[in-house]
Amino acid sequence: MQWKTADYAGWGRALRAKGRIARPERVSALKDALAEGGPAIGNRRSYGDGALNDGGAATEMKRMDRLLAFAPETGVIEVEAGATIGALLKLLAPQGWMPAVMPGTGLATIGGCIANDVHGKNHHGAGSFGQHVLAVTLMTPAGPREVSPASDPALFRATMGGQGQTGAILSARLQLMAIPGQRMKVLETRMRDFDSFIAALDASKAEFAVGWIDATAKRKRLGRGILEEGTLVEGTRPGPERKPKPVPFDAPQALLSWPVVKIFNRWYGSGVPDSGRKRTRALDEFFFPLDALSGWNRLYGKRGFHQFQCVVPADRAPALKEILNTIARGGVASPLAVLKRMGPGRAGHLSFPMDGYTLAVDLPARARVPALYARLEDQVIAAGGRIYLAKDALARPESMAAMYPELEAWRAEVAKADPAGRLATDLVRRLKLRSA
Question: Model's pTM, two decimal places?
Answer without folding.
Answer: 0.96
